[in-house]
From TrEMBL:
Pfam families: rve. GO terms for molecular function: nucleic acid binding. GO terms for biological process: DNA integration. This is Integrase catalytic domain-containing protein.
Amino acid sequence: MEQIFKAGRNNEVWVSDMTYVETEEGWLYLTVVLDLFDRKVIGWSIS
């Protein structure tokens, strides 16, 4: 599957990713949402 994602304008295509890191206090989870048009972060959350 070709994964070539293009957006012609803002808010047309959003992508997200989640990652986690083990710390001394437990697991830290980070989720980020990006607008593909300008690659700007739309939102994020840490828990």
